[in-house]
Specification:
Layout (H helix, E strand, L loop, with lengths): L53 E2 L4 E3 L8 H13 L4 H5 L2 E6 L3 H9 L6 E10 L2 E9 L6 E12 L5 E8 L2
Parallel strand pairs: 3-7
Antiparallel strand pairs: 1-2, 2-4, 4-5, 5-6, 6-7
Length: about 170
């Protein structure tokens, strides 16, 4: 199952503009056991209650719509297509034709296995230029949030300036 999310609060430099010497930043510790929901100031109905909408060069999180204006934004757009639009066809619009990403039918099977009304939160941390470590937490209706996946997502900037996803893999 593949998932991605978007948050837009402050500009984040495109990953292709980062220095090759940028330090790797680990993700926050994975969630374990029960998660205590903390009220959020967000009005995003599809976000987990303790999903801060944050955008910085070191860490971004949230469940916003996303777009193709930056690497982080395209990751969020993919997640939004998955959880809110529930469309593998829409999610595949954010990846290159030759991306190392499952075909649309496989993605749709994953979407269909998630109950309608599931909330989510993505946390995105740069690890290298064009490479992002992403944690996805989801909350099924009437259940506590839980860590679903830790992913490594690779992105690229196209000649027209739009960001795309070139690979989604499970984090080691």
């Amino acid at each position: 199952m593949i998932i991605v999310v978007l948050v837009v609060l402050e500009p984040l430099p495109d990953n292709d503009e980062q220095s090759n010497t940028a330090p790797s930043t680990p993700l926050p510790a994975p969630l374990t056991g029960m998660v205590h929901a903390v009220p959020s100031t967000t009005t995003t109905p599809h976000a987990i209650a303790d999903c801060p909408h944050k955008r910085s060069t070191a860490l971004s999180s949230g469940a916003d719509t996303g777009d193709t204006t930056s690497a982080v934004s395209v990751i969020f757009a993919f997640q939004y297509a998955y959880y809110v639009q529930r469309s593998a066809t829409k999610a595949r619009e954010y990846v290159t034709a030759d991306a190392n990403v499952p075909p649309a039918q496989h993605i749709q099977d994953g979407i269909d296995s998630v109950p309608v009304g599931t909330r989510y939160c993505a946390t995105v941390v740069p690890t290298a230029p064009g490479r992002w470590q992403v944690q996805i937490r989801e909350q099924w209706p009437n259940k506590p949030p839980e860590l679903l996946a830790a992913l490594i997502i690779t992105t690229a900037t196209e000649p027209d300036g739009t960001a795309t996803i070139t690979a989604i893999n499970a984090a080691p």
